[in-house]
Amino acid sequence: MAMSGCVNAEKGVDMDMQGAAERADGILDAVMKEIEPEVQWTHGPTTTGSCDVTRRRTVMTIISAERRGSFLGVVDRFWRKSGYKIKAINNDVDVPAIFAQTEDGFGVTLIVGGEGQVFFEVDSPCVKKSGVAESSTPPNGRSYAGMELIPRPNVHSDFWSARAT
Q1: Residue 145's pLDDT band (cuts 50, 70, 90)
Q2: Would you say residue 135 lies in a domain?
Q3: 3-class state of residue 19 by DSSP
Q4: Tell me: the pLDDT tens digits for 84-115?
Q5: What is the domain range of residue 35?
Q6: Contacts of 98 (CB under 8 A, 6+ apart)
Q7: Would you say residue 87 lies in a domain?
């Protein structure tokens, strides 16, 4: 991360950590708006390094094994349409993932974890050190802020949670 961040900093990523966090929120907001029907999500922890920031969102809607491919396809097509470079795709049946990078050097990841829970993560390139406020984007479902762990997905969707019949 630090090496790619330094390269990107030389290319002119001129922002501080708060600006990078806001850019990451915008990236996450855009992909969440693209998913139809809407899924419920909550914020994951924000972390900072010596010159980078990571924002996370956890999908609380149950994404059934039968719908995972469709879900990943929606995200993959949107990221490609947005000009993101797809760096890697993990086609593992149980833990599929997509790793991409924006034109301005932000790493963007979708990982499907246990019980089909979907995690989005955006890592900034190396930027100027500053304080980082919590995201101003409210979750569209229950907030788990202050809790030690976010539970497994617990929101049913007639579409995303559907099982094969």
Answers
A1: confident
A2: no
A3: helix
A4: 999 999 999 889 999 999 999 999 999 999 88
A5: 2-123
A6: 72, 75, 76, 79, 86, 88, 89, 90, 109, 110
A7: yes
Any domain includes 16: yes
Tell me the pTM: 0.90
Who has greater pLDDT, 97 or 6?
97
> Could you give the CA distance from residue 151 to residue 84 in angstroms, rounded to a whole number?
30
Phi, psi of 86 (to 5 degrees): -80, 115
Q: How many domains does the chain have?
A: 1
CA distances from 13 to 5, 46, 80, 87 (A): 9, 20, 21, 20
pLDDT bracket for residue 122 (50, 70, 90): very high
Per-position b or e across 73-85, b if 16+ CB within 10 A of its CB: eebbeebeeeebe
Other CB atoms within 10 A of residue 23 CB: 21
Whether 84 and 76 have beta carbons less than 8 Å apart is answered as no
Assigned domain for 143 exists: no
DSSP codes joined into one string, 104-161: TS-EEEEEE-GGG-EEEEEE--S-B----PPPSSPPSS---TT-SSPPSP-B--TTTT
